[in-house]
Design a protein that fits this description.
With 117 residues, the protein is mainly α. The protein is built from four helices and no strands. Helix 3 packs antiparallel against helix 4. The longest helix is centred in the middle third of the chain and has 27 residues.
Length: 117
């Protein structure tokens, strides 16, 4: 039995060729655009640094983090207020865990916002 080809090299045998054809068939974008005889298709390239630089998206990140923190605080506060002001004024252990998780989540997001490198 012959050895298989390495990734990125042309297929070494019919079995390799069948594998490459299967990969190409599973990815509709590549079907008919990449010849299986060339081997596995190359990985997609990264966008230019200017497009993937997080410095250019700082405002979006801060705005989305603030919105998520407010939603978590609002939903958790509403739940606890509804449970506390109910007929029996009962807050159970699940409410304490939800409060702890909400406080941890919000504090972690705030820490990330104020301590970015």
């Amino acid at each position: 039995m012959t050895e298989s080809a390495l990734v990125g090299h042309p297929p070494a045998n019919d079995r390799d060729l069948a594998i490459i054809k299967g990969i190409l068939a599973a990815v509709p974008k590549l079907a008919g655009k990449w010849p299986p005889e060339k081997g596995s298709p190359p990985s997609p390239s990264w966008p230019p640094v200017a497009e993937r630089n997080s410095d250019t998206k700082g405002g979006d990140i801060i705005a989305s983090s603030v919105i998520v923190i407010l939603v978590v605080a609002l939903v958790t506060g509403t739940r606890v207020a509804a449970r506390w002001s109910g007929k029996h004024n009962r807050i159970g252990w699940d409410d304490y865990f939800i409060l702890a998780a909400a406080v941890e989540f919000c504090s972690r997001r705030l820490f990330d916002l104020f301590h970015q490198n």
